[in-house]
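Per reviewer request, we include the raw input and output of the structure prediction for the construct analysed in the revised manuscript.
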Amino acid sequence: MIKTLDKYIFNQLIGPFFFGFFMFVTVIAIDPLMSALQNIVNDGVSPLVVVKWFLYRLPQDMIFTFPMSVLLSTLLVFGRMSKDSETIALRAGGVNFLRLLVPVIFFAIIVTSVSFIFNELVVPHSNKKAQEIRRYEILRLVEPEASENAIMRISDGGNAYARKVFESKNSMERVLIEYYKNGVIDCRLSAADAQWNGELWQLSGVVEQHYKNGEVASNVTHLKYDLKILERPLDFARQSKKPNEMSYNELKERIDTYERTKFVDTLDLQVELAMKTSLPFACLFFALIGSSFGLTSYRSGAFIGFGISIIIIFVYYVLLSLSTAMGKSGYLPVLLSAWLQNIVFAVVGLAVSSRVNS
């Protein structure tokens, strides 16, 4: 009987989940859709280009709909079961509420896994493509905006970092190049800016430091310094990615590199990294809260369930915005800033669940 019950609840969750997923994606897509239509009407952009941009942009919004859909599906399913007195019959048969949560948690774990994989494999690539289409095909930028925080291994064996890369101007600002021997830093070049003349990079305001046993052995300044490498401005520009254009491992590797070289402050990036796990795991806490609220006195059918889900989602993302802002400002530890809303919802969910189960 128990296995039949688990299968029954699991199957009941599937339909409302996909209904909620489609509905929330549609709602979230309204704003970028309006922007796309304005590009067609006002700017004369090809509808095909705009549709392509819209489809590539959509996955970054879809990642937020996974936990929303879990919340709505659990609210609707448990609200209906309670309304039809199914939960009363189950309790009479000795099945308590916590036991009913087993298939719900299993369902939420599956959605969490799918959400994480989707955020790793699909979202970074789609965001990068959407940004390129918008810049070059919709906005038709003659002079592209500067790429920031480019990092790459260059042809002479060094690790190069540039705060800003101006591809159209063939220049970079705040350049740092490091050379290592046997895993230990051997030489470091830091420059205020670099200009590509078609054959080599001309660095200005250069500080050249040589190291011995990890300590600075010599320190020389140069007004000009010629660096002959194979990499061109385009190569550096392509290495500059935003956090939402990188996978978890790519972002972590970049943070580790910045930490090692002290190139830039990584606090913002650390919060973004923690968010890559906290948001998918929201599915678990939304499942717990949705199931609990579905059995409370607030249930009154699908319309009320939808209204409750909107309120819960609003509260969650307000907490998310506040906590991440405080984390990036240094007022909260990194992990806490990314997981605070999950912790709050876990506590509330457990409290409501224990009340329902009593």
